[in-house]
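Structural biology now treats backbone shape like a language. To illustrate, our science desk offers a sequence and the tokens encoding its fold:
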Amino acid sequence: MSDLDLVIGDGAAATDTLDDRLLTILSDLIAIPTAYPPGDTTAICALVAPRLTALGYDVQVIFEVDGLANLVASIGEGAPRLLFNAHADTVGPGDSSKSVRDPFTAERRDGRVYGLGAVNCKGTMAVQLWLAEEIARRGGPARGQVTFTFVTDEECIGPHGTDFLRRAGHVKPDMLVVGAPTENAVITRERGVIWVEITTTGRAAHAGEAHLGDNAILRMSRIVSALDAQLAPRLERRRDGELRSTLNVDRIMGGHNTNVVPSHCTLEIDRRLLISETVDGAFDEIRDLVDGLGEPPGSYQVRLLRGTNGYDAPRDGPLVSNLVAAIESQTGEPVRFIDPVGAGDGRYFADDGIEIVNFGPGDASEGHTAEESIDMAGMVESAGIHLELVSRLVGLRDPA
């Protein structure tokens, strides 16, 4: 590949190194609060949009809900359509009175950059923004189109970020690279996920005459016991290598006063699905179990809150094979494939028949912590890999 030490972009001098430029971009991103709640990304999109517009990108800032801004920037046209995605929202800074540093000021120390969102996921966003600059500086893609999406609503697994962009038809990729802290390893498969709400109802009565009421919490306890005794062991036997089929009772809410028989109770469940399982099948399995417990008709309701199927990108496909080649070329080491614990925004495209990978710098365990940080050397390495991937997939008009 060509010399990656010289980069020219908004606010960058010709003598800036790649390391310098990445630090500058990341510092700018960290300085803008985007914590969920509320996940307001209006200001960070306002920072990025004019920079990419000046570089020749077709830029749109798109809202489904006020404050939850998503930026879509494209260069080139036609196929293949390569999409890079990173979320700009972060978790909250926590109790700032206990913090030893300003979470919105990037601090470089011992080869790492500290700041809120440094690894999850503004480090990857910085790499992708640098990549956007480099693609434009080198004349754009020689063929096809490259699109960057910087989105909100990822931290709450909400519908107003990547999910909205796909549903509304703002992006229709052939290949998708989801920015994630993978330590420059590659994730090609991800479990599906459903969230299920179960509601039970009963009849209120004074606790001193509990026999006159119908306790909704006790009804829910029978349902929970059945899920644990019947469904959980069944799921424990479902494995695909390191991937597991799981069920977790996450929240339960019920009652309104200690001296009243509760007439209402609500439970929420997180269910992770193997690639071979489907949202509809997993939901039906929970609903059928509850239906078979013999609770009175109308005394409970099982509702699907949200769900996406899993995906598994073929390792011999153009995206994965070229990413592997770029990693091995840039690092001189064999690629590492890993499986994620959680779910990323690629899941919204799981049924679209496209290649999806999760890839980026940083260790996921560093995210969501009081001293969140990212390894600068990993960002530099990731930038080189990203640029070579683009060169391999769509070419660059001026590869020099």
Remarks:
- DSSP finds eight helices and 17 strands in the chain.
- Residues 192-308 form a domain with the Alpha-Beta Plaits fold (CATH 3.30.70.360).
- The CA atoms of residues 167 and 263 lie 38 Å apart.
